[in-house]
Amino acid sequence: LPIKYRVQFKLLLLVYKCLNGLGPDYLMSMFRYADFNHSIYLYEPRVLSHYGERSFQKTGPKLWNCLPLELKNCSNIEIFKSALKTHLFKIAFDNYGTDT
């Protein structure tokens, strides 16, 4: 898996843990569900700088909201990790050579 997608894997795994009570308390409090579509989307905070765009608090929800519903609804962490890795492999290698 290319580095870009490994980073996304780690970020999304941490978001999954936070949303399911498995992450650190200080990170779990960063996320809120949006008020629409039966709470499958996370609220993406507004940021005022380039550094804010790269923060976990902004990037986590942004990546999470792009995931397919079946990934968001995984029942345990092992199933989520396997499905997420498969999903990212498909994206990475469908775009291989065209993505920088």
Can you offer a commentary on this structure?
- The protein is 57% helix and 0% strand.
- It has 100 residues and is mainly alpha-helical.
- The longest helix has 18 residues, at 77-94.
Question: Could you provide a short overview of the structure?
Answer:
With 100 residues, the chain is an all-alpha fold. 57% of the residues lie in helices and 0% in strands.
End-to-end separation: 14 Å
> Any idea what the shape is?
globular
What structural class results from the helix and strand content? Answer: mainly alpha
Per DSSP, what share of the residues sits in E-state strands of 2 or more residues?
Answer: under 5%
Radius of gyration computed on alpha carbons: 14 Å
In helices, the fraction of residues equals: 55-70%
Mean pLDDT equals 86
Count of beta strands: 0
Give the topology, please.
Elements: H1 3-19, H2 25-28, H3 50-53, H4 56-65, H5 69-72, H6 77-94
Helix pairs in contact: 1-4, 1-6
Keywords:
0% strand; 100 residues; mainly alpha; 57% helix
